[in-house]
């Protein structure tokens, strides 16, 4: 947080099938796994391009949403777009690999539809709800230079992760 690259509007990717993009995805996957996150956007590793990756285990979704859900498989989304479905929003805890050590309670749309391209240039289009929708909105924001604290409406709910137990029980891996 504070690095100018995280404030930029990222650029569209012209050729999803290029070797450069494949290499970028490899680096992002390693970075995300090393940090134990569920999502990452290219600007977070210093590359101002419109690419996000995410992967959420079923147990994590179930814990966050309180209902059984199947895993969000490893997804690479190039030039993503989000459409909000309805007006419903919900508060949920978020962390961010670019805002280490902190957690915040952030309002997000509950229902979204998102689309983007995969590494073969094929279209991915999905409806998402709850934590799945939250992760995609969080990562998408990175492409427009927005970090989650800017989405918060009550900064008394921005806390150190060491203090999070007072608010909730362990729902807070970084994104
Ligand atoms: Ni983030």
Write the layout of secondary structure elements.
Elements: H1 19-35, E1 39-41, E2 51-56, H2 58-65, E3 72-84, E4 89-94, E5 102-109, E6 111-117, E7 123-129, H3 130-143, E8 158-160
Antiparallel strand pairs: 1-2, 2-3, 3-6, 4-5, 5-8, 6-7
General description of the model:
By secondary structure, the protein is an alpha+beta fold. Helices cover 22% and strands 30% of the residues. The chain is built from three helices and eight strands. It has helices at 19-35, 58-65, 130-143, and strands at residues 39-41, 51-56, 72-84, 89-94, 102-109, 111-117, 123-129, 158-160. Strands 1-2-3-6-7 form a five-stranded antiparallel sheet, with helices on both faces. A hairpin with a 5-residue loop joins β6 (111-117) and β7. The longest helix is centred in the N-terminal third of the chain and has 17 residues, at 19-35. It is globular. It starts with 18 loop residues before the first helix and ends in a 15-residue tail after the last strand. The mean pLDDT is 94. Residues 96-98, 138, 142, 175 line the site of nickel (II) ion.
């Amino acid at each position: 947080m504070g690095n100018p690259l995280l404030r930029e509007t990222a650029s569209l990717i012209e050729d999803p099938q290029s070797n450069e993009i494949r290499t970028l995805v490899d680096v992002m996957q390693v970075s995300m796994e090393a940090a134990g996150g569920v999502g990452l956007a290219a600007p977070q590793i210093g590359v101002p391009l419109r690419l996000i990756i995410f992967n959420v285990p079923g147990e994590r979704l179930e814990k966050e949403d309180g209902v059984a859900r199947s895993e969000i498989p490893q997804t690479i989304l190039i030039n993503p777009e989000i459409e909000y479905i309805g007006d419903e929003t919900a508060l949920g805890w978020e962390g961010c690999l670019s805002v280490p050590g902190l957690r915040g309670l952030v309002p997000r749309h509950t229902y979204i539809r998102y689309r983007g391209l995969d590494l073969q240039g094929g279209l991915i289009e999905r409806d998402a709800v709850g934590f799945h929708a939250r992760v995609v909105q969080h990562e998408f924001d990175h492409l427009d230079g927005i970090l989650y604290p800017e989405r918060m409406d009550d900064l008394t709910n921005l806390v150190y992760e060491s203090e999070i137990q007072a608010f909730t029980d362990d729902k807070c891996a970084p994104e």
